[in-house]
């Protein structure tokens, strides 16, 4: 119980002492180099997100999803046909008919 009381007292002392180490905020007019760099990076990020969103909207306008689906369906149909033909050829090579 004494250990718990000591630990609580130390944590309270450290919490109260930490308030004295707070750094005062800078005024809005006093912008440092770091804040300028951060603002610049944020603006670059926002511009890149806007550009990417514009590209996505443009691609959606081209209806590529529908074209890709049609291409996939045509490819599956052609591959299925040729797979069936190949299967028939292989079957007749392995099990020839005796006529």
Helix and strand topology:
Elements lengths: L1 H17 L14 H29 L2 H31 L5
Protein name: Apolipoprotein C-II
Family: Belongs to the apolipoprotein C2 family.
GO molecular function: phospholipase activator activity; phospholipase binding
Describe, in short, the structure shown.
78% of the residues lie in helices and 0% in strands. It has 99 residues and is mostly helical. The longest helix is centred in the last third of the chain and has 31 residues, at 64-94.
Describe this structure in words.
The chain is 78% helix and 0% strand. It has a domain at 63-98. It contains 3 helices and no strands. It is mainly α and 99 residues long. The protein is elongated, with a radius of gyration of 35 Å. It is found in: Secreted.
Radius of gyration: 35 Å
Low-confidence stretches: none
Mean pLDDT: 81
Number of helices: 3
Helix content: over 70%
Main sheet overview: none
The backbone outline, from C-alpha atoms, is elongated
How many runs of DSSP E, i.e. beta strands? 0
Which structural class do you get from the secondary structure elements?
A: mainly alpha
Strand content: under 5%
The helix-strand sequence is HHH
Q: How far from one another are the termini?
A: 100 Å
Protein name: Apolipoprotein C-II
Main location: secreted
GO molecular function: phospholipase activator activity; phospholipase binding
Signal peptide: 1-20
